[in-house]
Specification:
The protein has 555 residues and is an alpha+beta fold. The protein has 21 helices and 13 strands. GO terms for molecular function: heme binding; iron ion binding; monooxygenase activity; oxidoreductase activity, acting on paired donors, with incorporation or reduction of molecular oxygen.
Length: 555
């Protein structure tokens, strides 16, 4: 097999002396190999140095991390976290006391890799976020193309789109997320909760140990999406069997939900590998896509005959039909929006519910305060109604505070589309701003964790304090877990309606306690559990809790 040799090495090899005799040839071979190795080392070192210097110039010599690999590059993710490799978790690990930013005396710093990855500017400042995502500079920045492409698997959609395309999608998709949908979410959440209690066998038990509460919250969120997002209904444990013996839509939806990140972000060649996990995922995609295409046609007809359901998919089609041909989305765009919005919401809600239960379990005083609030609003016997949502603000506060401390979407990326500038506010206590150039192609990383733990915006940011949200009708721009500005998450009220209903029912019925290992203290449990697992999204570690049935009438 022929091997291409880089020109610089070919030139050096051509100048090597020739000769005869085994000894001479042996010495020559040894010298030649050594020279090649030295040359390769020099070339690599020079290349790394050039890359490093260019990176420094690209960020205007801004202070920051200097590392072989970008934390978000494949080598950076796969290599062990160490002093020389910050790893994917470096922003999470640096949240305590905002230590990562104090190190550079700024809320914005650079990351310059000299082997793999592009230079980055990382920020935990809300004013910088406004500039690059929502302010007058927003047209100077766009989502990196490779990230938008991953989100286009199901079709063009609101999350991946920018500019006029985004506005068209927002015009159609927005009306589908309305009070009618949120009321349906509330009703279905209560129904699924009752089904969960019955099918898990909790009704006959006073104490229930749940080794991994995420298994419950992800299953719960899946059923809510199935019913309220797609109008599908299946039981807690047993999905129906397809008549032809193949995969049911419910099974397909479950597989896609559980493996959504693999579906969106694995390279195409990896998906072709002959593994059962990937074959099932491929079959699930085929089943779901066929179903969705059929459903678009059927639901369009039901909208015309005023026989439409109240799930998000149907409401989206209804809103689309009202637009006429000028602004209407095509079928693939409708499908793309349903999947991206609902699957993104599923993961956020499931992770945040699990973390909410963890925080309540290890904060009994706060849990008691929330129980008292629930009893004041709905009492022991009345079923919580959708109309109670606004009054259950302390329950909502638990969800919001948990989402602040464990933001599922913990990173935002923007790339400069042209040479531009941004203004960096100086550290707290210092007046003024510094204007820095941002060359075309520079990637900006918004550190949502750093923003939510920034003492500029929150007092005691490392403390679980739902009270900071009590009575707050609007969280304000400081709260970025649902994004901010025009691109604020459309599924926000969908998620909070589900969460408030679920937490109200569970907290009223059961006292939450940490499920401790032998000899473990509550403090050790917190150290073990209240840490992050992160890849594409961020969540709390596997959470073991104990549920103890409450006696009605005894708070």
């Amino acid at each position: 097999m022929a091997v291409d040799i880089p020109p610089i090495l070919a030139g050096l090899l051509a100048k090597l002396p020739s000769g005869s005799g085994s000894s001479v040839r042996g010495d020559q071979g040894s010298i030649s190999l050594s020279l090649v190795l030295v040359t390769v080392a020099v070339v690599l070192a020079t290349s790394s140095l050039v890359k490093f210097v260019r990176g420094l110039k690209a960020v205007n010599y801004m202070p920051g991390l200097r590392t072989p690999f970008s934390p978000f590059s494949l080598p950076g993710v796969l290599s062990p976290t160490a002093w020389w490799n910050p790893g994917l978790s470096f922003l999470w690990n640096g949240r305590k006391h905002h230590s990562l930013y104090k190190r550079f005396n700024s809320e914005t710093f650079s990351v310059i890799p000299w082997v793999a990855g592009a230079p980055l500017i990382v920020t935990s400042n809300l004013d910088v976020l406004r500039q690059i995502a929502f302010g007058s500079h927003r047209t100077d920045f766009a989502k990196p193309e490779e990230m938008s492409q991953a989100l286009l698997f199901w079709g063009q959609n609101l999350v991946a789109a920018d500019g006029d395309t985004w506005r068209t999608h927002r015009r159609v998709v927005g009306p589908a997320f309305n009070t009618k949908l949120y009321e349906d979410v509330w009703v279905k959440t209560a129904e699924i909760y009752a089904q969960m209690v019955e099918e898990e066998g909790w009704a006959s038990k006073d104490t229930i140990d749940v080794p991994v509460v995420q298994k419950l919250t992800f299953q719960f969120a899946l059923l809510v999406i199935s019913r309220c997002g797609f109008g599908l209904s299946f039981s807690w444990f047993e999905p129906p069997v397809a008549e032809n013996g193949g995969m049911t839509v419910q099974q397909a939806l479950r597989i896609i939900t559980e493996r959504n990140m693999a579906l969106l972000f694995l390279p195409k060649w990896v998906k072709k590998l002959p593994f059962k996990y990937l074959r099932e995922l491929d079959a699930a995609v085929d089943t779901m896509m066929k179903f969705m295409k059929e459903q678009v046609t059927r639901r369009r007809e039901s909208v015309k005959t005023n026989d439409a359901g109240s799930d998000a998919f149907t409401l989206m089609i209804k809103a689309n039909e009202a637009e006429g041909s000028k602004y209407a989305l095509d079928d693939s765009e409708l499908i793309g929006n349903v999947f991206v919005l609902l699957f993104a919401g599923h993961e956020t809600t499931a992770h945040t519910l699990a973390a909410s239960l963890a925080f309540l379990a290890c904060n009994p005083d706060i849990q008691q305060e929330i129980l008292d609030h629930i009893l004041e609003v709905v009492g022991w016997d009345r079923a919580p109604a959708f109309e109670d949502y606004a009054s259950l603000d302390k329950v909502l506060a638990v969800f919001l505070e948990t989402l602040r401390m464990f933001p599922s979407g913990y990173l935002m990326f923007r790339q400069a589309t042209k040479d531009t500038t941004i203004k960096l506010p100086r550290p707290v206590g210092e007046e003024g701003v510094d204007t820095i150039p941002v060359p075309k192609g520079t990637t900006m990383v918004v550190d949502v964790v750093g923003m939510e733990y920034n003492p500029r915006y929150y007092d005691e940011p490392e403390t679980f304090k739902p009270s900071r949200w009590y009575g707050v009708s609007k969280e304000g721009d400081n709260f970025t877990a649902f994004s901010v500005g025009p691109r604020e998450c459309l599924g926000r009220r969908f998620a909070t309606s589900e969460a408030v209903c679920f937490l109200t029912l569970l907290i009223r019925d059961y006292k939450l306690e940490p499920l401790l290992q032998k000899g473990e203290t509550v403090g050790q449990w917190k150290e073990r559990v209240l840490d992050a697992t992160l890849f594409v999204t961020l969540g709390v570690k596997d959470t073991p809790i104990r549920l103890v049935r409450r006696e009605k009438g005894r708070a």
